[in-house]
Each structure stands twice: as structure tokens, then as C-alpha cells.
Amino acid sequence: MSRTHGRHALSAAITAALVATAMLPAGAFAQQAGTQNADATTLDAVTVTGYRYAIEKSLDQKRDANAIVEVINAEDVGKFPDKNVADALQRVPGVIVTRSGGEGKNVSVRGLSSELTLTELNGNYIATAESNGDPTRSFNYTLLPSNMLGSAELFKSPEARIDEGGIGGTVILHTRRPLDMESNTGFVSVEGTRADTTQKTDGQLSASYAWHDKDDRFGVFVGYTDQKRTTRTMGASTESWQWYGRDEGGTAVDVNGNPSDFNSNWWGGTGFYDQNGKYYTGFMMPTSVNLDVKEEERERKGGQLTFQFKPLDNLTLTANYFRFELSQDSQTHTIKVPEWNIARYWGDGNWAGGRLLDGMTMDPSGTIVTGADYSLHPGKAYYCSEDEAADAGMAPGGWGSDDCTIPTPQITGSYNLEKALSQTVDFSAEWRGESVDVAFKGGRTWAKGGPSLQFSLPLKPRRQNADGSWSLGNLASSWDLTGTPSMVFSPELMQNLKDGILQVDLGSTGSSWTRNTNEQKYAQIDTTWHTEAGFFESFQFGVKYRDGGIHRSTGNSYWACPGTDPSDYENRYWNGGCNDLALQFSPDFLYGMGNLAGGINASAFRPSTTRPTSPT
Description:
Helix content is about 10%, strand content about 45%. By secondary structure, the protein is mainly beta. It starts with a helix and ends in a 14-residue tail after the last strand.
């Protein structure tokens, strides 16, 4: 490397001399002739910095490596327009990044699972944690701001000196060290981002400072980053596709009529009717169609403190502390149209009547349902219970509230407070001898993550009265997946919900949670013996100790009636201990689910002018 750098410096020096000579007038050559040699000897080197130098240094590292390696080695990785390391790594060939909230979260190499990619910080494992609590082998890159790092190496092939576990690849992140930087240098960056989906501006602050004495014996580096971001994403999804007609036409077929390996069959084995008498069979259909809006406030903080001491020219001591923290506060708002208004089982008495299904639309092959319509027909008799159906002379089986009301859209709001924290402390000593190099490193890395609060609340647009009858909040529902996913409901739906015509499901508050911790202690000694014997340039050998593990815990949050003993099961909301209070619902809790161009369309739900103050 030193010889290569010398060639670059000599080339740059010659170029600089030629340029200077070309700019002199003809009469000046004689005066300069006596001093040119002296000036040339005082010029040590021309150091090229910036993005071009970063590319050259990256190529040198790749050229000298003993493995297939990609290097992101900019003068400052933070100068890339990326806010975390995964977004920077996606520029490397063969790297695929999965995203969360528009940011890179996990890294996979050569098409393999991200669980098979090992991530290390300065050559050792870095503990990771998921803010949602589920432990994973894949590193959570949303924790790491890009401007905290100096370079990153991606090894696509293994080496004996690299820890095992990176079957897909190994990413080694390198941080800055003060003795490698100019003294009294640093930066302060203040940015603002604004998204048209949230109409909110978020601030971002990054700063670092490096100092060392004039003898390059002692140095300190400190860095800090605080990035805030508000995102709003809209999505459409389906659940549990099933094939109808297994017992009437055989197994599923594809759109060309050929046998398909799709084997999720509706257990009833047949198709079903709509309430106009039309029969449907031999098709696949989702059990629910969903539209959702998720708004998330994300804050990422990162800090680094590094000390270096060089008591001897050959010995360097380094101590590091890293802290990376991510908080994610989110609210998700979902409207669902399940198949509750379809009479699906041929053995029930309500099967032939078709419940409240008006009809379905199919793709051109007639095998995939692309839309469905439900409504209550004026003047038609509907039966809400087995007794009502029996009094009308109907056959028993299947009769209930879904035969006389439209329980869709089911509206669900969830509120989540999640956090992840990763910390690392380490110490290293490096000895560079004439023929033998010895390096020692020891440290501890630990992380924890999970929600501090999770709460969800579903409701349906109907209300059962004291006499057993039902008040209707919605008279028609439909969904369509062709083009822009869309849903249409009765125009009076929102007003009916605000008037209290709704049914709150107290038993589905989604209060369970998962939390995880991750820790590892390590110590290692690496030795390199430089030889001058022909074929072998050097021998590397060493020993390493590691001890760590992952812990996962689960639990539930129980919501008790105010002023009661929460340890008493009877005082919990879903046991009816305080139904009058639990069933109260404020119209302010309804959050607008408007339309985005090219996104989703949901009639009766429009953007709100204020942000929600509660889960739903």
C-alpha cells in the first residue's frame, strides 16, 4: 500500500510541476532554473481528498484483499444522501435492502435471506434489537445513522480471520479514529425534511469533532446524530385466499384452466349464492380485503466517544463507546371488508338466501374474484336470529346478526410505542513490529428492544339495542381490486359512527407484547507474521473468545376499570365490569383515511385537519 501511494503522490507532484511551468512567461525560465530542483525536493506529496480519492482508496482495498470484497470508503460516508448504513450499502452490486417506513432496515447478499448476513462493528459482533420485540439474526440497520461511520466493507466470500455466521456475506463497519484524522476538525450539519403525505417538517442534526496533540500521541473523537422523521404510508392487502368448489369441480385451476398447486380450499367444498339467486363456484377469493394508513414518528439517535493513546511509535491503544437508539411511535388505521355477509356453508338454512351479497366481479378467466358488493334491500325481510328465522318458516342453521346488518367496514385503530437500543464498549491494543504485528481487542455489546405500549381497538358500524334489535350504521359495502384498490360505503356512514351507532369489540385490544435482549462479550488476539520468503507474504493466526445469547420475553397488558383492583380478573374491560364506560366512543377518535393519487380510495373517509388523539 505504501508503494502504491507513493506512485500516486509522485504522479500528482509531477503533474503539479508541469502545470506551474506552463504558466510561467518565457523570460522566467532562466531565473527559475536554479531553484526548480530545490523546490522539487521540498515537495513531499500532493494529497488528493474528496470523493475521487475515496473511490481510488476503495479500489486499492479491493485489489489488495484476499477475498471478494466491496468497499464503501468515502472521506465521509455521511456525505452520501443516505440517512442510514443500509441505504448506503444498497449501492453495492449484489446487495438487496428491505425497507421499513421508507428506510433500509435489513441487508441481504446475492439473493439469500438477510438472516444469513453477518454485521460487525470494527471487526466484532454488534448486538441488535427489534423495536417490535421479535428477535432476529439480521441486524436492524435503522439503528445506525450513516454519518457515524468512516467506511464499510462487504465480504462476499469467507476468510478464516472473519467470524462465522455470514453465509450470505459479512458487513464490517469501521468507525472514525482521532489519530487518523486532522486535529481540530469536525462538522455540524442541520437539515430539514418535509413530506407531502404528512405535511410536516422534521429536523436533523449531526456533529462530530476530532482532536489530537501535535505529536500524534493522544486523541479524542466525539460524534452525535439526532434524526427525526414522520412517515405516512397507505396500503392495500388481502387475507387467506381460498378456492371454492372443491367438491363440485375438483381442485383449483389457474387462469388458463390448467390444474394449479393452490391447495387452500374452502372446507365447505362448494360455492355459494348471492341474494339475487345467482350461484358462484370454481373460483378463488380472499376472506378479507383491507386498506390501511400508518403514521409513524421515528427518531434515531447515535453517539460515539473514542480515545486513542500512542505511548510508543509501534503501540496504539484505543477505547470506544457507541450508543445507537431508535424510537418508533406509530398509529395504524385499518378498514376491512371480510366475507361476513356471505352464507358460505351449504348445510346452513341461510345458504340459499345468499345473506347480504349482491354480486361479485371476476377477472377475464372467471377464476379470481376482483370485487364484491353487499347491501340491504329496502322492503326485504331479514332475520337476525335462529328464532326469527324459525318464526318465518326458514330452515335452521347459520342465522345471526350478519344476516340482517352490514358489520363492515370493520374499523381498527392501533397505537404503539416501540424502542430499540444498542450499545458497545471495547478496548484494543495494536503493536506494529518489523516482522510481527499483534492486536488485542476485548469488549461487550448489548441491546434491548420492544414495545412499552401496544393497544388496538376494533369496531363495527352497528349497535344492538336493549330490546335485541339492531341500529344500522352502514347500509352498503363494496370493494374492488382492479386498478386503484377502492372501497365504497353508505354516504351516511361517518355521521352514524359519530352519532354512536357502533359496536366496540373489547376482546380484541391486541395487548400482547414481545421484548428481547441481546448480549455478547468477546476477547481476541490476532497475530500477523510478515515473511520475505518468496511465495508467502505473511501468515495470520489468532484466538478468540465469545460468550453471549438472546433472550425473548412475552406478556400481556390488561386494561382494568378505573378505581378497581387490576389483579381481579372480573374488573377487566372485556369481562363487562364497566361496559358503560368501556363502550363510550368519541367521534374525535376517528382518523381520516383519505385518498392518495395512485394509492387507495375509500369513500366516506376523508383526510382530517387534525392529528388523532387516540388509538382509533
